[in-house]
Amino acid sequence: MSDPMYEVGANAMVTAWHVMPGMEGPEGELHSHDYRIDVVVARDDLDELGMVCDLDVLRGALDAAIAQIRDRSLEIIQPDDAEAVTVEIFARWVHDQIRSAIAEDGTSLRVRIWETPDAFGGYATTS
Question: Is 99 exposed, middle or buried (0-12, 13-18, 19+ CB in 10 A)?
């Protein structure tokens, strides 16, 4: 059985565009998704204020990340070594944008990006 942890989170919706080269149909052409982004921060213990992290800080970091890609092509965040921006790559990018805002020892950060109501990609770390 795993150790108990405290969690807080936030989510947001954003429309962005992407293309999956070499695929047929709509995936192989530039198309949009209404992505839902879920962010969860967890820690074993609460800080001196009784929080995992400040929700206003978390929301601000998530909003700042979303502002960079809202209604744009995800090619602007595409790593040099990737053929396309998949939901997994997108999740890591969001994670990296938020991590510094909530970085504390022992804090885990999990990001899930829902491309459809029943399919997601994610990325998580513990510092």
Answer: middle
Per the listing, tokens 């962005």 go with 16
Which domain does 120 fall in, by range?
6-126
Q: Could you give the number of structural domains in the chain?
A: 1
Cα 73 from Cα 50, distance rounded (Å): 40
User: Residue 14 sits in a domain of what CATH number?
Assistant: 3.30.479.10
Q: How confident is the model at residue 16 (pLDDT cuts 50, 70, 90)?
A: very high
Q: Could you report the per-residue pLDDT of 28-87, keeping only the tens digit for each?
A: 777 889 999 999 999 999 989 999 999 999 999 999 999 999 999 999 999 999 988 999
Tokens found for residue 117: 């109501």
DSSP assignment string, 33-59? EEEEEEEEEEESS--TTS-SS-HHHHH
pLDDT tens digits, residue range 87-109? Answer: 999 999 999 999 988 877 778 99
